[in-house]
Amino acid sequence: MEKCKQLAKQIRIDSIRMTNSGRSGHVGSMLSMAEIIAVLYEKILNVDPKNPKMENRDRFVLSKGHCAPALYAALANCLQVLAQEEIPWVVLGRGTN
Question: What are the tens digits of pLDDT across the range 57-67?
Fold first, then answer.
C-alpha cells in the first residue's frame, strides 16, 4: 500500500504543477481523485507498461474531465507513458480547449 500512497502523492504534486503552469484548473477535482487513480493503476487495472497493446488489458475511461491532469500524472508516473520532462505542463494545466 506504500507504493499507492507514494503514487498518490506524486499525482498531487504533478497535478498542482500542471494547474500552476496553465494558470487554470480545478485543483479540488484533481486532488480528490489521487488515491483512487493510484490504487486503480497500482492494484486493480490489468495494464502492462512493457506491453501497452496487450489484448486483454483493462481500459480506464475518466468522465470527470476536470481531473484529467491527475490521470496524466498517473500515466506518466505509473505506466511511464510520458517521461516527466515530456509532459506538456502548460497545455495539460488548461484542461480541454
Answer: 999 998 887 88
